[in-house]
Protein 1
Amino acid sequence: MPMKSDSTIDRVDEADSRVRQYVAQMTRNPRLGLDDDIFQAGVNSLFAMRLILFLEQTFQIQIENEDLEWEHFRTVRSLGRLVERKLRAPAEGHDDGTH
Amino acid sequence: MTTGLTDTQRDNQAAFRAFADSHVRPFADTFDRAEQLPRELIAQLAATNWLAAGFREADGGLDPISFGLLNEEIGAACSSVRSLLTVQAMVGSALGRWATREQQDQWLPRLRDGTAIGSFCLTEPNVGSDGKSVETAARRRGTEYVLDGHKKWISFGQIADVLLVIARVDDRPTAFLVDRQSPGIDIVPIRGLLGVRATMLAEVMFTECRVPADAVVGRVGLGFSHVATSALDVGRYSIAWGCVGIAQAALDAALQYAGSRRQFGVVLGEHQLVRRLLTRAIADVRAARLLCLNAARYRQEGDPAGVLETLIAKYFASNVASRIASDAVQIHGAVGVSREAVVERLMRDAKIMEIVEGSTQIQELLISRDVLQTAMAEATVEQAVG
């Protein structure tokens, strides 16, 4: 279950930088930009699964069926927005779909 | 022989072993000769709730270590039965993660209680290791997709009720949840395999097979990258532990034979070259189990590093299982190549483990590439920061 606490704001701010750091390492591209297409950078067949596990473990969120849109995973910035939405969702009274 | 287990995990292990001893081991040779598992056994497994053991814990699955121990204990008795657990886990865990609530409500309870058997339909006559290149096509037609294609080497395809099918929507690999009763599906049994002969393999032909549009699992285009890879990850983990079971069973048989068979006035175990084979097997079984436990701990934490550790565990365990089973046959001599000895079946089953869920050669490519990429990335970062 996601931990929605006072740390949420800090973790939202961290989202872009943490995601960028991880994806840059996985794609061997230290100059990866926030809006660069991640999957054009050359990733192996295990990357998507590891990226999802990284997001879930780092931010204590659950990536679910309704999150599975290519646009969410295309760039560091879009991933950051996905994380932000998942972190903020219960505080705004939204159903985060956890079951 | 496994340290660091919780009391629950130890109790689970004991229960798994008791079930294997009473319901599986005595009949494994019969399953192998008949090339099928009886429905009665599937019902017995369902009654234990272990058909769902590999599901996500939120969906009723066991913790990763307990699931691993289940695969080891059942795998030591019969790899075909363990394969049933593997396939249920692959389909159930993929649905638990990526299916809609409606798809989950329709199939997870049935997969859990054994009223539905799942099959993972990726491999084709022209597509094995290169899973992204599936040729089975899915054409959108109004509110339906129409599937045409040919899957092969599908475990439990002969009795599956629901098929998780990877097909191509234009050029985009997509996962579909297909009811076996859908029109346009033909099942042809595959018999005469070298090993795991009771896994009831089949060819599955789709001819103008119509499925509703909401049969897509996940999203169009994410069928391989997300759905299939997560199912294969669970399958690799299950098989890695199953290989520890094969290896342990082969070692146990070799120890028993080496301790009783006498040649040249002494038991075989007194001969140095036999001891060498035994020592290598003893160390390798422990090493394989430790690699599986290592993978389990990463998986328990949801750590992405668990993906690589699972690959390594499957790679190592499948290779040592094959080598130990072969050495066990060697130690048994003539009886080892006959049906009088369990090692004969273990060797045949072990060979299959070097091929399924990523062959040894594919694992070697993936593991070395992954670790090399990480090393190169770290070197690049160091250079960038001066």
Note: Chain B has a mean pLDDT of 95.
Protein 2
Amino acid sequence: MTAALEMHGVSKVYGSPPNEVHALREIDLHVLSGELVAIMGPSGSGKSTLLTIAGSLEEPTDGTVLVGGSTLADMSSDDRARLRRRSIGYVFQDFNLLPGLTALENVKLPLELDGVASKTARTAAMTALAELSIEHRASHFPDELSGGERQRVAIARAVVGNRFLLLADEPTGALDTANGEAVLRLMRRACQRGIAGVLVTHNAQLAAWADRIIYLRDGCVVDQPAIAPQTNPVFVGENP
Amino acid sequence: MIRTRMRKILRDIMSRKTRTLLVSISIFIGVFGTIMLFSMRDLLVRQLEDDLEQQKLAMVRTSLAANPETTVDNERLLSTLREQPDVTTVEGQAVYPLVWRQVGDEEYETSFVFAYSEPYDDIQLEPPSLMSGDYPRLGQNELAIERRFADKYDLETGDELVLRILSEAESGDQSEETWIVSGIIFFPYGYPGLNDVLPEDSVFAAYDDARYVAGFEGFSSIYARFTDFAAAEQQTDAFTAAVAAEGSYVPVLSYTEDPADHSRIRFARTIGNIMASLALLALFVSGFLVWNVISALITEQTQQIGIMKSLGASQYDIIVIYCGIALTYGLLGIIPGVILGIPAGFFAAQGLATTANSLIDDFGYSIPSIALGIGSGILVPVLAALIPAWRSSRVQIREAIADRGISSGYGRGPLSALVGRLPLPMTVRQGLGNVLRKRGRMALTGAAIAVAVAAFSGVLAAFLTVDTYLDDIFSSYNYQFGITPNDPDRLDAVRTIIENDFDQLTLRGPAVTVAVEIEGFDREYDPATGPPALFATGYDPSSQAYDLELIDGQTLTESADDVIVSRGIAEALDKQVGDVLTISAGGHSADYEIAGITSYPLDNLWFTWETLSSLAGFTDDAGNPIPGGVYVEMSSADPTADEVADTLQEIDSVLHDRGITASYSNIVLLNESISQGLSVFQVIFNFAAILVALVGAIGLFSTLSISVFERQKEIGIMRSVGAGSRAIATEFLTEGYVVGLAAWIIGLPLSYMVSLGLLEMMNVTEDYQSTYPPRVFLVGLVGVLVITSFASIWPSIAAARKRVSDILRYQ
């Protein structure tokens, strides 16, 4: 299997001496297609920074990041924007749906930004919404949706088109347990279709949905325990 | 709470330095413009009121031409006129060309000598005032010079000038005399004669001395004052008839002017009011910006307001905080506005004074203007902030604390739905959608720019129309200058000289110009913007001196007693070709049939010169009509005013050598002078319009910057789903251009009204007032796009540069 995301010796330093903060130190990470990796760690450990660097939203101070085999550092900002439109999906804790757009418009936004014809984008967006069983809410605005529905729309937006990397930053943080599990189930299903997923979470129970868990502390990887297949909830609570 | 409130106000001001700077700059522009332009008006009007002493102003001025059939008797004329009903004062004034040179120079200059029927100390009406030295004494070879003449030629009391004695020139004598400058005079009243006599060309002498050096026959005008202005108006015709009846002179033109409402003061006040109003408009427009900024601040701080209220802050406290912020913006703009506006007003008044035939020497300021600037600078922002502040103070605590800056109706409504369906890129639809969502704020910004468009396009349209108006006037002339010998009997000699000595010149026939009256036509002409009478031109139709565009009828024939009238007169009288007009001049009346109607934009009549001279009484002893002068065309294509002036100087020199003195009318110079005079006003009007445009641009800039600030999260989300810098910038540029284009559409009809007002003020005839040059649409659009681009580009780039990870992490 090919690596959707590779990070080699990635470090990130904020500020300048003597007030510099080392958010990440020499991180190496490979996420394969179809694999769901959970990142855990206490607040300030560098989880979100790792995710934003992986998503090309931020550049590392040092090290190399490859997405789909392409080195981000070699790309122009336009190329990186194109990569985000076509290959990377982002899911946030507070959904980050645009309030002036309906659910459908939010989902087709990256496709339209990429120049896809409106009709084609609409079809693709409706398909994505349907896969997440939220197509009946397509014409609703975000403030007319429940928290769980909003996050499903956010996931639909993150996977619409031919994305191969799904990055989720505390996607269940604003949801109750039931809705949180439902979101993880959807992510898991996306990974089963070949998408590589990276999940940042505090919640060990949710992290258990992942194939691998990486623990971060003070910007360093401190542990990468493998998860026994039988403990993976995907096989317990879900019929793949 | 007061100290806490103050601290919050100052922290809000300091924490958003760029926004504070922009709002304060826009208030500064308004305050600066208001103080400067109102001060300019006040200082100029004050100076003119000082200069033009009301009790010394004439009520009736009658221009005269010496009657060729009789001998001038000034004493008899004055005593006759002093006996007219209600007359209190009558004085005569002579203004004629004077040829002189500085000692040691060879080149002669032509200026004008002023002389009066009364000794200088006894002049009652519009007297020259002595600044230094003495008035010139009779028989002492003395003359006084106007202070601007002294400045122009670097002369002072005691200096000597060499004068050509023109009274002896007719006999072929080339005599010169050296006269001494006895004093420096300030003469603010001006000379409203047919020829413009500039103060820098004015010298003064005792009457008989002036006749000796300038070689004239008699007065060029009579000034009179009556018991009151109503009596003056009532008695003007009788007064003019008395002048004609006395016989020494032919009255060319009589006009009345109310000393309490002098045209020059009125004109200065009107111009000043319009310009100052534009400045006030700029300040008013800055109020929109304050409104927007306070509204945006309140939107940002709704949660804070809720918290403050939950801690016990009253409605009053909330209003005070936000009005306090607006007041601070005002104070930051007022302080530099006052400091710079006061001297700017003085210098502007000083500059404009020269065009109003006045001088402002001592530094001055206008307390009412300063008070108005300060008062408006405080009131406009505070009032602008009052409504959003009041609204914020009424917010419910629970709603405010839970506020996320997005109302539940966000993005809803039929217009939003329509925008959503438009086949446009998503970023453009987002931009349009945001304009609709923030329509109150955008409407205020758009209104500011619409006002700027109206001011700028209106000024442009008005001055382009005036250009067309002047082109239409001056393209009718097929000659560049006219020569009027002081002695009409010498006209044949002048024609012979021109024909024999100047190959490059072509005579365009004899001519005469006379003020006339038409029965039933009583239009009044403002002396501030042109000759205060209706004029008729007599010319030789076969000479083609005029290229009149006839809209009806036919041109004059040489023998017919008919007349061509301009369209304005025909329309005012509802007359057609073939109708008869009763026309009077110089105390005589006759009926004339309208041969043709021309599109010439000014009110004017054209006769054959013989017809007009006969009507006005310009006849010889045998009763045959005699012309006043001759028109001359230069062979060079489109000569400049300077080229014409050089030719005139050459002719003048030749005529003097042959003993002929003459007055000249330089049509090209007249055209250039009017254009230059207008361009001064255009610059000042444009300055005021630019102030408004600047405030509008700052308003848009601030609004978009606020928009970028408020929508950082949206930018972050857009970025996270792959929107590039161009897409983000497009969204904000779209907002700017939508507002700009809407402002352009709204501003155009307003600009038509501004243009109409300006043309009305400049006395441009009604035919032209309704015109609006089509290119103004395009120039206005380009202007709006430029303003919008400048105002939008930085916020758009700022939006595109936002670090998406910071936005999303720390929102």
Note: Helices of chain A lie at 47-54, 77-86, 103-113, 118-131, 147-159, 177-192, 204-207, 233-236.
